[in-house]
Structure formats: structure tokens, C-alpha cells
Fold this sequence. Notes:
The complex is a heterodimer.
Chain A: E1 6-14, E2 20-29, E3 34-38, H1 45-52, E4 60-65, E5 68-69, H2 75-81, E6 82-85, H3 89-92, H4 98-108, H5 113-126, H6 142-154, E7 160-164, H7 172-184, E8 188-192, H8 196-202, E9 205-210, E10 213-219, H9 220-225, H10 227-232
Parallel strand pairs in A: 3-8, 3-9, 6-7, 7-8
Antiparallel strand pairs in A: 1-2, 1-4, 4-5, 9-10
Helix pairs in contact in A: 4-5, 4-6, 5-6
Chain B: H1 16-19, H2 22-38, H3 44-61, H4 65-71, H5 76-88, E1 93-96, E2 99-102, H6 103-129, H7 132-141, H8 146-175, H9 186-213
Amino acid sequence: MSTPVLDVHGLAYAYPDGHQALFGVDLHVHRGERVALLGPNGAGKTTLVLHLNGILTAGAGTVAVSGLPVEKKHLQEIRRRVGIVFQDPDDQLFMASVRQDVAFGPANLGVRGAELDRRVLAALEQVGMAEYADRPPHHLSFGQRRRVAVATVLAMEPEILVLDEPSSNLDPASRRELADILRSLDVTVLMVTHDLPYALELCPRSVVLSEGSVVADGTTYDVLTDEALMRANRLELPFGFDPRSTSMAPPAG
Amino acid sequence: MGAGHGHRLHFHGHSPVHRAPAHVKLLLLLGFVLVVVATPREWYAAYAGYLAVLLAVIALSRVPAGYLAKRMVVEVPFVVFAVLVPFVATGPRTEVLGLSVSEPGLLAAWGLLAKGTLGVLASLTMAATTEPTAVLAGLQRLRMPELLVQIMGFMIRYLDVVTAEMGRMMTSMRSRGCEPRSPRHWPALARSLGALFIRSYERGERVHLAMVSRGYTGKLPQ
Lengths: 253, 222
């Protein structure tokens, strides 16, 4: 196969206070895939995400993005290739206008002038927020801010989009709108989520992280219907939701 | 939260005072305050002149007097202090409304009140006629160090977020039968303010993380 967009091999990490969060994680994501990263609170999902763009440095093992190892000398390029959308849009949007916020990333990469304007507009159009370009981000609704947060990362033209809890705190309509946007993007996605129906809807493949190790990696449908696996890893479907009754279920036969 | 517009001080308008460049207004404000502070307090006519100039600017800006008056309450602690001075100061004493007060104290109180009020009123006029972001741009044009301007920009951006967070904490305290205003519950209030500080600090770390993730290296793009 071609070089994976994301190639995590034997990744282990302990926080400075001695708490070990990751015990040898292996994860490969290929171009165009949409992968859900599932797991209970404290499984190490966020720790893993922070390794992908070199905020945290691996204690052991390696992380490579499209063949480029995550090392100090490549950090700028790694951070262009890996776009992380954090959970709270208020952490991500801090400039005076939506336009400036979306321009922040590419401008840090040295993009200027007409090319910068083009990228900002393209990113905002991808999330349907172009008409809000001159508004201050804190005047937008929560769902709109989440979409702008996605645009701030899209403007860097990343090879992989990493979303931390994209559906949290969204009302059902905003949640569905975001799903439509994510489906429309032509970009590799890794999505950390507790929202299992959302994972089933958007991500053909799921990886389950538990206590710092990958315990399952398969199609989302198989993961969600494996009751023993789900119970063992504190994963629960919402009341009344049965993957078998959705359009994702394999045809009966 | 989407409706929380951050215009507590700014009064929208298009007067010449609103349109004047922010850095000019900043310099004028600074000059005005320095002159007022440096004026000997016995020059009563000069103070009348300052007030007249200030009132003319306010009239020109068409900011309603009531709007500014309401915001003048920030001065109250100073007023209280100034009112106390004549009673506690030493020196020859005189009678005002049947109360024995210190003469130098009376003069000191007048000086404090006059200078304070003029300064606060001038600053409020500046704030009412200039958007916070314009003030920042003005400071930048005045060659204020980039780092300080950045810090002030973040302060403006996150003031609403932190205020809203504090509001939610107060609501949840009240919902559990604690009245933050009552001195009996001040220990709980102090602890929650401590928690607010920690939360804001952690938010600062998360914001920085999100910035670094987008390639931030210490300079904000212009």
C-alpha cells in the first residue's frame, strides 16, 4: 500500500508526573479514510492526538505524517499537515474577526496577500460561513463557532483533519450540519468521539483505545455490534439506538 | 452566549470624535490627564476650563450624558475616600454645615475629587467613542511593544468568556443555597474565585496549544 497519511508505531508516553498514558499504540490511517477514535474517558485519546502534531514528544515509538517523522526540525511542516480542531471553539478562536482567525494558521506558514485571501475564503465556503467573515467570533452561535474552528484548520490545507469531540454541545441540527460538512470535505479525518451514532454515520472504520492501548480496529459497524468488546471498554450505545436497524447494517441474508 | 455583545463601554456613533484616529485620541487623553494632574489644586478656574473642554468634546461625540454618568460609578471608592479625608486629616479646622473638618483635608479632598472625576470622565469618553480593537491598533501605531498589545487583545477577547464563566459559577452557588454577597459565604466565594483563576489559567494553556498547533511562533500576523 501507499505511505499512510498517519503512521503511529509503538507509541508510548508517560506524563512528567509519572502517569503513563500510552502503552505502545499502533495506528495507520490511509489517504481519504475517515476513522473514529473511540474509548472511555481517560483512555489516552487526547494524549494520542497531541502526539500527532508534536505538541507532546513520544517517550518511545514513532509518529510519521505522510512519511515525515514528527521531530523538532519538521514541526512547522507537521503542523501544516495535521490540522487539529479542539473541543472548545473559544480556545481556538481568539482574533477580532472570523477572517483574521481563519488567516492565522496560513499566515504563520508564510502565506500572504491574494493567496491568503483565497485560502480564507475557500475554507469559510467549505463550512458555509463565508458571509460571517467580518464578524467577531464571539458573537456567533456555538455551532457556527465550531464550524469556523474547522475552517481555521482547513485554511492550512492539512493532509489529515483531527477533530476532538466535534459533536459535543451541538444541538441536533448543528450536529447534522457539521456531519454534512465533514462528509463533503475531500480530506482524511480522524475523529475522537463519544458520540457512537455519529461515528457510525461518518466513519466507516473505528479504532478503540482503552487504557493506553489499541484494543480494537475494524469497521465501525462491527465494533459497535460486538457487545463483549463494548462492555469491556466502557462503551455504550445511547438508549434505543441499534446499529443493526440503521442503513449502515449489512443487507440481511 | 452568542448574544453577549462586548459593548459595555462603547457607544456606537459616527461623530467626529468617533471618527478621529485612535492613536490621536490616546495621545490627547494622556496629555489631558497629565495636565490635569499637574495643575495645582488652588487654580479653581483652570478646573472649570478643563471641565468645559471635556463637556464640549462629549457634546460633540453625542454620547448621552446619562450613559457616561452610569459608568461613573467606578469612581465611587475614590469619592468615599475623598469624603473621609477632611474628617481624618490634621491642621486648622473649619466648620462646614455644622461639622468640624480639617482645612487642608478639605483642599486635598477637592483636589482628589476634581482630578479623579476629570480623569475618569475623559477615559470613559475615550472608551465610549473608540472600539477596543481600534484602541489596540492605536497603541500599535504608537509603537507599544507587540507582546503587550497581544496580551491586551487577549484580555479583551476573553473578558466576556471569563465573565460568563463567573456568572455560571455564581448561579450554581445560588442554586445550592449560597448567597455570594453575604459575608457568611465569602469563604465559598473566595474559593470559587480561586477556581476561576485556575480555570482561566488552564484555558490560557489550551488557547496557546491551539495557537501552536496552527504554527504560532510568537508573532501575530498583521
